[in-house]
Amino acid sequence: MMDEREDRLDEWVRDAAREYNPPPPTPRAEMWEAIQAGRRAARVVPRPIHPVRTPLRWGLGIAALLALGIAIGRITVPSRTETPAASSPTSTAQTPAQPVPDQPVQSVTPNRGSRSPAPSGGDPRGRSEVAAVFATGDHLTQVETFLTEFGTRAPATDFAGQAQDLLTNTRLLLDSKRVADVRTRKLLEDLELVLAQIATLNPRQRRQDLDLIADGLAQSHLRTRLRNAIPAGSAIRL
Amino acid sequence: MESTSLVARVLAGDQDAERELYDSHVDRVYRLVYRMVGDGELAADYTQDTFIRAFDRLATFRGEAALSTWITAIAISVVYNGQRKVKRLRAREVDLEHADPVAAPAREADPDLKLKLATAIEGLPEGYRTVFLMHDVEGYTHLEIGSALGIQEGTSKAQLSRARAKLRQQLAEYAGDLAS
User: Fold this and answer.
1) What does the alpha-carbon distance between residue A99 and residue B156 come to, in Å, rounded to a whole number?
2) Residue B31: CB atoms within 10 Å
3) Interface predicted TM-score (ipTM)
4) Mean pLDDT for the stretch of residues A156-181
5) Minimal Cα distance from B34: which residue of A?
6) Across-strand partners of A80?
7) CA angle A172, A177, A180 (to 5 degrees)
8) Is A93 or B130 the better-scoring residue by pLDDT?
9) Which pTM was predicted?
10) pLDDT of residue A35
11) Confidence of residue A163 (pLDDT cuts 50, 70, 90)
12) Torsion of CA B48, A237, A147, A204, to 10 degrees
């Protein structure tokens, strides 16, 4: 009796479950277009190959080796932080590198395995470029998450504030000039436009505006380009 | 065999073969993804991602499983990762907004059995839900499910059985209505 009832229930569940999230017709053409665009964007632009003469090649090799050695040295050898007194012009003349007994010298050996660049020494321009790469990656991850969420949430949710924050960061990255990659800059510019639209959504004409934004997103394949621009394994930071 | 030659043509740069591969598998992928996420835009995004990844990694396809199963495995991975992001963001927003749990659908309020079933399916653990949707709704075999999810065929059967039991449990109080 019980088994019969369970079977009956199972049968009903199977039948009824076919109406759970019933898929509409597959938007084949639109998706194919987006896939093609995404793959084109992901393709690395091949660099022109110039024949390099042998002596020059040797020179470049030695220079690269030296640079690598210097980099390893800076990462692995602990350096000393100048105490505030030692860094002042007057004290520099008196005691160039003497540690103060009461104030132990702080090692600035970077955390190995950490993504942070070395806090002292090294080329500041190179460090800021590395920082810009990380900042851009993080930012793109946040925008991707935001846009994914934006596409799924009920329009009642207030997205304007979040969009405004992301818009500000996008503008800062574009203004910083550290983002040199042309594709990334183009992506940021396109994102800026969409984020600006979301940030200025008109509450009275919301549905219409949302449709326009959705069209813009689809046409520029922004989500796909975003995913391709985000380095693999970069996790969202909440 | 057919898929092996198709893969070879795609890897050789044949654009028509790319489209052929896409056309052969896109419906199945989109249907499953849509069942899992229930949102057209997300389903399209995840399906696109699935094919972009599939084309990128096609050289690693060894033919140990069917091509369709290999693509399904990628699709499920894309959906899981994407949905985790969405859930995390939603959870954070709920925390920030101090959302009232009363807003959740009340258990006794809605007598609609199909809505109850939908809620019960949503409430299944991720693995059970995937197996249930693949087998009972989309008609995948346990062998295909096992290959796509990287589990044993027997595990797929066990998970389906547990999923059904959980659904029965959730819907038990309404079972009387079904008898009538």
Assistant:
1) 66
2) 21
3) 0.83
4) 76
5) A23
6) A107
7) 120
8) B130
9) 0.54
10) 94
11) confident
12) 160
Find the CB nearest A151 among B42, B136, B171. B42
Q: Tokens at residue A70, please?
A: 């210097």
* Cα distance between residue B80 and residue B37, in whole Å: 10
Structure tokens at B143: 């062998």
Give the burial string for A211-235 (b: 16+ CB within 10 Å, else e). Answer: eebeeebbebbbbbbbbbbbeeeee
Q: How far apart are CA A28 and CA B58, in angstroms?
A: 20
Token pair recorded at residue B152: 């044993």
* Calpha distance B54→B59 (Å, rounded): 9
* pLDDT greater than 80 at residue A24: yes
**Chain B contact set for A157 (CB, 8 A):** 93
Cβ of A17 within 8 Å of Cβ of B117? The answer is yes
| B119: closest CA of chain A, how far (Å) | 10
Domains of chain B with CATH codes: 1-103 (1.10.1740.10), 105-180 (1.10.10.10)
Question: For residues B112 and A159, what is the distance between their CA atoms, to the nearest angstrom?
Answer: 33
Residue carrying the six token digits 């893969």: B7
pLDDT band at B111 (very low <50, low <70, confident <90, very high): low
CB contact under 8 A, B48 and A224: yes
**Residue A101, CA distances (Å) to A80, A83, A105 in order:** 14, 12, 9
A-side interface with B, Cβ within 8 Å?
Answer: 5-6, 8-10, 12-14, 16-21, 23-24, 26-28, 30-32, 34-35, 38-39, 42, 145-146, 148-149, 151-152, 157, 214, 223-224, 227-228, 236, 238
B52–A228 CB contact, under 8 Å: yes
Nearest Cα residue in chain B from A235? B85
Residue in B48, B50, B43, B53 with CA at minimum distance from that of residue B75: B50
Q: Which residue type does A87 have?
A: S
pLDDT at A188 over 70: yes
Number of H-type helices and E-type strands within chain B: 9, 0
Q: Mutate which of A5, A6, A18, A20 to test chain B, going by most B C-beta atoms within 10 A?
A: A20
